[in-house]
Specification:
With 225 residues, the chain is an all-alpha fold. It is built from ten helices and two strands. The radius of gyration is 18 Å and the shape is globular.
Length: 225
């Protein structure tokens, strides 16, 4: 890799590390994303705002028209509403998969809690903005698509390795594998598809909703009521 690519990668990792260090520290005070919903929304919303304002000249190439922002907001409303409806349906129809939840107490997506969905949506938006910034910076520094996808896969895969210890081998490895795939695929969508950043955000959010509901369907059983 060229010096420019290395420099941009180090800059991005520094920003990512600082923001997540703050989130982990505050998380010890606010609790999980359900109990500390408003703190999580405020923190990640503020972090996203700082990144957007501070690096808008770089990110603007990914959102060149205002209609893309409307598309993103509309997509969030649609996906979020469907997610909330899906949560309600699953909680009515299925008995909670208690063993799965007990074995993975830190896996918030299993709770099907609307508070978790709201705070996670803001956090995912922050992640996708940061992914977009990384892709733009590496592209500007002369990185090719293959290189950028590889860096994305490695960075996000390694960034989720700690979940193996926090959430158990099965759940942790699932997150690592999903992160490697997403880290490799998202740059392709961002660089090759108009509004690619918007679509990656909606895909990321939808995956959390689908997996959570799917675990209730597969791991639970139908309610008798």
């Amino acid at each position: 890799m060229s010096d420019g690519v290395w420099l941009r990668l180090v800059e991005w990792l520094a920003i990512w590390g600082i923001i997540w260090t703050g989130a982990i520290w505050l998380g010890r005070k606010w609790g999980d994303y359900s109990r500390g919903m408003w703190w999580a929304i405020l923190y990640f919303g503020s972090a996203t705002g700082v990144v957007l304002v501070g690096f808008w000249e770089d990110l603007a190439v990914l959102l060149p028209d205002w209609w893309l922002l409307w598309l993103m907001m509309g997509g969030v409303l649609i996906v979020g509403s469907l997610g909330a409806l899906g949560y309600g349906w699953a909680r009515r129809v299925f008995v909670p998969p208690r063993e799965l939840i007990w074995d993975n107490p830190a896996l918030g997506l299993l709770t099907l809690d609307s508070r978790y969905l709201l705070s996670k949506t803001v956090e995912i938006f922050f992640q996708q903005v940061m992914i977009g910034l990384l892709v733009v910076w590496l592209h500007q520094a002369g990185g090719g698509l293959g290189m950028i996808s590889t860096i994305g896969a490695v960075v996000f895969g390694l960034g989720h390795v700690y979940l193996i210890g926090l959430r158990g081998a099965v759940a942790g490895l699932w997150f690592v594998a999903a992160s490697v795939i997403a880290g490799g695929v998202f740059p392709i969508l961002i660089l090759n598809i108009p509004a690619g950043l918007v679509y990656t955000f909606l895909i990321h959010l939808s995956a959390y909703i689908i997996v959570g509901i799917g675990c209730w369907i597969i791991g639970g059983r139908k309610s008798e009521s």
